[in-house]
Amino acid sequence: MKNYLNFESDIKKLEEELENLKNPYNKEGISEVDTIKISKIQKDLEVKLEEIYSKLNPWQTVQVARHEDRPKSKFFIENLFDNFIPLSGDRFYGEDKAVISGFAKFEGQSVLVIGQEKGEDLEKRIERNFGMMRPEGYRKTNRLMLLADKFNIPVITFIDTPGAYPGVGAEERGQAEAIAKSIECCMLLKVPIISVILGEGGSGGAIALASSNKVLMFQNSIYSVISPEGAATILWKDPKKALEASEAMKLTAKDLLKLNIIDEIIKEPIGGAHRNKDFILENLRKSLLDNLTYLKNLSNEEILSQRKNKFLQIGRDRGFVDTKNLDNNLSINQTKLDKIKIKILKSKKLNISILTFILAVLFLIYYHN
User: Are the C-beta atoms of 242 and 201 separated by less than 8 Å?
Assistant: First the structure.
C-alpha cells in the first residue's frame, strides 16, 4: 500500500484510477483494458507530479524528507557497496543499532561506510530508535574513523536522523561529549570524508557525522539545527507555525547550497526518491565516484586544510560585514605590537633570557638592601 502526503491528494486519485484501469477484472467480470485512457491518465499524472514537486514550499519538503517509503541508509549500503563487513560496539558500553557501520568496497576501492538508519517498518524503527543515535553509537563511529585514518581509507557517511537521542540514559552516558568528540574526530581525519544527507539532517546528531570535506544533499532532504516544530514552539509558542519556521530556517538543499553550507545537490526523480529508487541510486553512485576521485588527488595535509577552511569560511561571505577582501587563509588581522607579543611568547630562548634578567635584577636589589 502506497503512502501519500497531505498535499498529494490529486496524485492519489490519479494513481488509484490508473490502477483500476490496468486491472482487467471489475464488478461485472473480465473487461477490456482501455490503453488509450491509461496513456492519458499516465501523462496527467506526470504533469501533476511536475506541477506539485516543482513548487514545494519548505514545510512540504520537510514532509517529503520524512516520507515513510524514502530509501534509507541500509538500502544504499546494500546496493552501492560490495563485500560490506559490519562492525559493532564502542568497546566501552555496547552496540547502537541506530547506526550501521563497516568496511566495504566501492567501485573497487576500500571505504568505511557509516549510515544512520531509521528502519523500514514500525518494528525496525523501534529497534533502531528511529535513527536517533546514543553516545555508544558516536563512540563506535569514532573508533572506526580513527581505524580508517590509520590505514588511509576514505570515509562515507549517510545522514538520516531527526537528532541525537535525548533520553536520560544517553545524557547520563555523556551524549554531548560524544557528539563533540565525533565532530573533533571528523575534523582531524587526514583521509577524505564525504557525507550524504538522505532525508533528515537534524541538529548535532547530524553534524557529528557531517563535518566532512564534501557534504552532498538529496534534492528533497533537509538539514537544520532543530526541527521546524521545535523552532516554532520556541519562537511562537505554537508548533502549528512549522511552515513559518521552516521558511525562516533555510533548511532546504537549494537554500543551503546558496549559503555554501553544502557542496552539491543530488537530483531526485519527480515525486521524490521513493518513486524511483534506481534513479536516485545511480545519481548517488556517480556523485560519490566523482567526489572520491577529486579528493583522491589531494595529499593528506591538503585534505585536512580543505576541510578546515571549508567550515571556517561558512557565514563569512553572506553576513552583515563586507568580506570581499577576506584572505583565503582566514588569518586574524594583527598590529605590529600584537605580532611582537606573540613572538615573545613563542620564543623559548627569549623567555629564558627575560626570566634570567628579571631574576638578576631582583638578586641585585636584594643584595644591595
Answer: no
End-to-end CA distance of the chain: 97
Q: What is the grid cell recorded at 79?
A: 546496493
Categorise residue 130: left if φ over 0, alpha if ψ from -120 to 50, beta otherwise: left
User: Cα separations (Å) of 179 from 94, 128, 176, 341?
Assistant: 17, 18, 5, 36
* Phi, psi (deg, nearest 5) at residue 342: -65, -40
Cell representation of residue 349 = 630562548
Helix locations, the chain, DSSP H:
9-22, 35-53, 58-65, 73-80, 122-127, 135-150, 168-172, 175-188, 203-207, 228-236, 242-249, 253-258, 277-296, 300-313, 336-346, 348-368
Chain length of the chain: 369
> What pLDDT score does 145 carry?
97
Q: Which fold has domain 64-313?
A: 2-enoyl-CoA Hydratase; Chain A, domain 1 (3.90.226)
d(CA 130, CA 73): 12
- Residues 211 and 209: their CA atoms lie apart, in Å, by 6
Give the pLDDT score at 347: 67
Q: Distance between CA atoms of 323 and 314, rounded to whole angstroms?
A: 12
pLDDT of 40: 87
Q: Is 109 helix (H, G, I), strand (E, B) or coil?
A: strand
- Amino acid at site 247: E
Instruction: Specify the pLDDT at position 193.
Output: 97
Give the C-alpha separation, 269 to 220, whole Å: 10
* pLDDT single digits (tens) 198-241: 999 988 899 999 999 999 999 999 999 999 999 999 999 998 89
Residue numbers of the chain with a pLDDT score lower than 70: 1, 24-34, 317-336, 338-351, 369
**Cα 114 to Cα 88: distance, rounded to the nearest angstrom:** 11
Q: What angle do CA 204, 252, 325 make, to 5 degrees?
A: 85
Q: How many CA atoms, within 13 angstroms, populate the side-chain half-sphere of residue 277?
A: 12
Task: Answer for the pair 249, 224: CB distance below 8 angstroms, yes or no.
Answer: yes
